[in-house]
Amino acid sequence: MAIDLKDIQAALREDRLDGWLLYDFHGSNSIARAVVALDDSDKLTTRRWYYFIPNSGEPHALVHQIEQDSLSHLPGKRHLYADREQLEKGLAELVGNCQRLAMEYSPSCAIPYVSKVDGGTLDAIRRLGVTVLSSGDLVQRFEATWDQEARISHQGASERLYRIKDRAFALISEKLQTGTPINELEVQRAMVSWFDEEGLVSDSAPVVAAQENSGNPHYLPTPTSSREIRLGEVILLDLWAKQNTAGAVFADITWVGYTGSTVPTEYASVFEVARNARDAAISLVENATESGQELQGWEVDQAAREVVDKAGFGKHFVHRTGHSLGKTVHGNGVHMDNYETHDTRRLLPGTGFTIEPGIYFDRFGVRTEINMYVDKAAASVTGPLQEALVTLL
Fold first, then answer.
1. CB 289 within 8 A of CB 378
2. For the chain, which terminal residue's Cβ has fewer other Cβ atoms within 10 angstroms, N or C?
3. What's this model's pTM, rounded to 2 decimal places?
4. DSSP structure string for 72-123
5. Quick check: 100 and 18 in contact, CB under 8 A?
6. What CATH number has the domain bearing residue 268?
7. CA separation for the pair 153, 250 (Å, rounded)
8. Do 279 and 323 sit in the same domain of this protein?
9. Structural domain of residue 113, as residue ranges?
10. Interatomic CA distance for residues 353 and 351, integer angstroms
11. CB of 356 within 8 A of CB of 217?
């Protein structure tokens, strides 16, 4: 993938930045590596490298003499260093008279997903008289947004996940109706086999959580923790995956069922609050996109959280409303978060993310998770919306 130099420089000028300084050491900055298209097969990058993109003119790279070809695929002039004095001098020349540079940094580590540059390197840059600003929105534009192929891959993954979700609920229902015992781990293993059938890959097996385990947002069944799924229980399925193709991006959904024919009022009413919170966030994104209004991640979280707070369940909603989706399930773009962090990154065209409010108690929990995609003129949900708990008998 060629670096989009013209568009990056236009964005730097728009944001009143003198340049973007990309830096990596031993794979410490996965964002920088993605921007300059260094993948895991590029092993000969064991020394510090810097790639400086000014807001106009030619980029410059600073690389170690024994790895002088490590950034040879990039435009611009390459400068070599070997000893530490040469590194210091080369870095000063690279930065020149710049005053405002973007790096993978977040003040006070407020958004840890962007904080990839170590404190010592920041010290070295600041000693040169430079103000370091966050590259968060630059990262979104040039690494975290989806092109058309990625959008199509997401839609394909989404459709497959919904099929697997339906098969999992059908499996549980069949076993319950025939009186055949089944546990969380067995359902999870069946779902993993269906991932293979559908050509999907993931970094984890899906969540299958019954009753009290559904109250643990990151529960995963294991041979020692898995429990039997019984009648009259909440069952939560959280599954995420992408197609096994180059450049594919993830889809990530959560649905909740009930192992009975009539959902108890308590479960139904709590799910209704989570659903309404989800829909409030969706409406905010749709309306803002349609009207051309700038929207930041924290605002989407706040729209959902206000619904949960008003219903009296605020202390039981213990995570952000949503996260970026990309080539990894938690992508490098904006998160819907005013709780764990205050995410001021914008929902830029090409942004894909989840909305997933959840309410958790010791006895049970619910979560409803959908995926959204923001285009220039419209935002859309990329799959069906769950309106009520799925009855499995």
1. yes
2. N
3. 0.90
4. TTSSSEEEEE-SHHHHHHHHHHHHTT--EEEES--GGGSSTTT--S-HHHHH
5. yes
6. 3.90.230.10
7. 8
8. yes
9. 5-143
10. 7
11. no
Beta carbons within 8 Å of 220's beta carbon, 6+ residues apart? 188, 204, 205, 207
Residues 139 and 169 in one domain: no
Q: Give the strand pairing for 351-355 and 251-258.
A: unpaired
Tell the burial category of 84 from Cβ atoms under 10 Å away from its Cβ (0-12, 13-18, 19+): exposed
Tokens 């064991």 sit on residue: 46
SS3 content of the chain, % helix, strand, coil (to 5): 35, 20, 40
Tell me the pLDDT tens digit for each residue of 153-197: 999 999 999 999 999 999 999 999 999 999 999 999 999 999 999
Burial call 125-139: b when 16+ CB within 10 Å, e when fewer: beeeebebbbbbbbb
Cα 29 from Cα 143, distance rounded (Å): 13
Residue 389 has which token pair?
């708990």
- If asked whether residues 233 and 360 sit together in one domain, one would say yes
Instruction: State which residues of the chain have pLDDT below 70.
Output: 1-2, 40-44
Tokens of 32: 């920088």
- Do 266 and 283 lie in one domain? The reply is yes
Q: For residue range 340-389, list pLDDT tens digits in order.
A: 999 999 999 999 999 999 999 999 999 999 999 999 999 999 999 999 99
| Number of folded domains that form the chain | 2
CB contact at 8 A, 180 and 159:
no
The DSSP letter of residue 376 is: S
Number of other residues whose CB lies within 10 A of the CB of residue 88 = 14
Q: Which helix (H) or strand (E) holds 269?
A: helix 265-291
Cα dist. 50→26, 29, 71, 119, 219 in Å? 12, 11, 9, 16, 40
Q: Amino acid identity, residue 312?
A: G
Write the Ramachandran bin of 373: left for phi over 0, alpha for psi from -120 to 50, otherwise beta: beta
Can you say how many angstroms the Cα of residue 228 is from the centroid of all Cα atoms in its chain? 32
Structural contact between residues 3 and 74, judged by C-beta atoms closer than 8 angstroms: yes
Tokens encoding 111: 């958004």
pLDDT at position 40: 62
Please count the helices (runs of H) and the strands (runs of E) in the chain: 9, 16
Q: Name the DSSP class of 144.
A: I
- Is the Cβ–Cβ distance between 220 and 353 less than 8 Å? no
